[in-house]
Each structure stands twice: as C-alpha cells, then as structure tokens.
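Hey, quick one: can you model this chain's 3D structure?
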Amino acid sequence: AFEQYSASFDQDVPKLNGGIGVLINSDNLAAGALRTLSVAGIYSYLLEVSDGVTIKAGLKAGYTQRTIDFQKLTFAIDEFGNPSPTADPIVRNIGSKGYGDFGAGFLIFSEYLYAGVSGDHLTQPDVSFSGSSSPLPLKITAHGGASIPINDGSFFVSPNVLYQKQGDFNQLNSGLYISKGPIVLGG
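Sure thing. Here's the predicted structure for all 187 residues.
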C-alpha cells in the first residue's frame, strides 16, 4: 500500500515584493516500512523588468526525514512460506536518514508569452541508508508557452512545452489548448 499526504500554504507579501510559502509532504510505503516526511519553506520575488514583462524568481529550502523499519520488510521466505526479517546487523541498525534539500527557479512572462527554468536537489543530497554514497540527482525543468488571441481576442490558442531531466531520465511534454471564456479544450 502507498499513502501520500500533502499540504501547502502560500501568501503574497507586498512588503517583500513577493511571497512566502510552506510545503509539507508525507509518504508511507509498504504499510509503514518506508516513511518520508519533507518540509520546505519557499520565498519568491517579483521584478517588473519593463512595461508588460515580469520575472518571478523563487528559492526553496527544506529538510527531509526518511525512516525505514526493517522488521516490516521480508528478505527471505523459509520452506514453509513464512517470511523472515533480515539478519544483517548493519541493515537492521539503520533506521532513519535526514538531509537538507534546496531548489531555485525563475519565470519570465508577459501578457501572451511565458518561459521558465528551475532546478531541484541543487546540492544533490545523499539519500542512502547504508552509508554508501547515493546522491539524489539534480532535476532540471524548463517550460514555455504562449496564449495567442484569435479573432480579435474572442478565443485563445495556447501551445506549451515542458522538458524535465533527472539523472538518465528525460521527459518532454507538449500540449495545445483552445479557450473561449471559461471553456478550455485541449491536452
């Protein structure tokens, strides 16, 4: 079984010319065998570059605590089909791992165009339980799009693209939306 809970809060703070936020995520895998709790604070800054062009920049700093309960994991099954926990004393003594995690990004936008880049896991924290190095790979995300008015602005065509890379994993998403008032179609 897999359970995930998330909560977030963000607030515009005019005195900071931006906003602040908090993210909380909790995962529970294999009936509590592996639990993760992450808490992060976010700050964003709004900069008007020129009339109609704005940049939003953001920073995220967080802490993640991962806990593993080896008594809930099965490493071997005897000849009668009974599971048994690991007998490895090194593995059994490892219970939790905590690490800091940081991210940053920016978005530049105007009335009809937007583009942005962000980086997550900037310090590539070591997430290994065993002591051997296992850095969490840097995740880069780039995205962009447009909102093109058609027929004197009575409806809009919005092409968009998103690219993500983390370690050896690459993902490219593209889409097109057509909107008229509150009705949006596309994918």
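One thing worth noting: The chain has one helix and 13 strands.
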